[in-house]
Structure formats: C-alpha cells, structure tokens
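Shipment paperwork, digital attachment
Item: protein structure file
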Amino acid sequence: MIRLITAMAAFLFFFNVTNNSASAYSYGDPGEEAIAESYKEIEAYTKENRWDEAKTVYQGYEKEFDLYFKEVKPFIDRGFKEKDRELVLSSYKAALRMNIERRLQFAEKEFDNYGRAKLLLAKANGTFKVLSGTLDTEEEKDKAKKVDASLQKALKSLGNPGLFGIGESNSDKAAFDKEVKYISSELKPLFPVPGAEKESQFQEEHGFFDFGDADAGDKIWLLISVGLVLILAVLIIMGKIKKRRQQ
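Attachment content:
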C-alpha cells in the first residue's frame, strides 16, 4: 500500500512539473508547423538559385494555398514563374500570417476543449517563431516581442484542468479573445499580402472606395459601377442645368 501511494505521489509530481513547464511554450514537436518549416527550405533554395527544388517544396503545400490562402496564391505563382525571390518570400510570409490567424480562430472555437485549443495555439506559436525570425528592424522586433507576450497570455487564459485538482486554474474566454484580436491586428501590417499597403493607402485617401473584404475582381467591378453612377449623376445634373437655361 505504501509503495502504491509513493508511486502515485511520484506520478502526480512528474505530471505537475511537466504541465507547468509546458506553460512557457515548450511544446517540442507538437508546436512545429510543417508549412512554416517549408518556408525555411524555400528561403534557402531560392538564395542558392535552386528554383526547381524550391518549387517542389511549394507544390507539396499547394493544396493548402488553394484552400486557405487564395488571396496570396497568384502572387507566389507569379514569383516562381518570374523567379522573383522577394515576391515569393513576401507572399509565403503573408500566407503564414494567415495560417496563424486560422489556427487562432479554430482555437477560439475549441476553447472549451483544453487539449485541442492548446495544440492549436502551439501551432500558431510555431509559425510565429519562423516569421519573427525574418524581421529586420528594431521596431519590427519590438512588435514581435509584444506579440510573443500576447501569445503567452492567450495560453494562460486557457486555464488548466489539472489532474485530481492539482495545478488546476480557471479559463478566461474574454481574455483569450482579446489577445487573439491583438495578435491579428499586429501581424497583418508586419506580413501583408504583396500590394496590400498601396491598396490600403488608396482606400485611406478615397474612403468611399473601401469595399471591405471583396476580392480583387469584385473590387474592379465595384469601381466601374461607382464610376458609371458618377457619370450618370453628372449627366443628370448637366441636363437639369441645360433645361433651366432653356426656360
């Protein structure tokens, strides 16, 4: 009986130590995101001008781009076609940023499933580590530190179910949602879709041309529609002015 109690005590101690160490994102392999690791390969291959190998790596994840990163795919395809390394890498980084957002959104939905939410958060963190390593300026690195701190807070807000009440802590969904919102808002300008900055500037200068989340094709047609409406309005006004002069 004493041996049994001793064994159980040792097990609980080991579980508690392991569980607490995980709170600092020491996930190991579970936190490794394959598509993020593929960025490192593409970066290395394109640096050595080994475009065939780089494209082979990309093709291994092309289905993910078709499903989740459609906005980025035309740019990365063009980058490979034109062997434009900067376009390929910036496009890939934008896709990885979207992947972090996707993981966080799923974690929000799985919030009550501690194990699943924690794993999704680990995947997001693994991708972020790859992206943060590509930042150059001190300002960007400072923002990355703040995002990393926010990821830690998000992890803590999941709480901990513990084992037999040991290490148990309550979850905080409101705090988690707050951190997710902050992370997404900070990452988007750091890793934008190529050309997004120019589009954003244009929309700021011409607020009435802001069409939200419409894709590029829809935006063109919306702009044409707005133009036609404006032309029609001008013709109507000119017609009224001409009519008044004739009276």
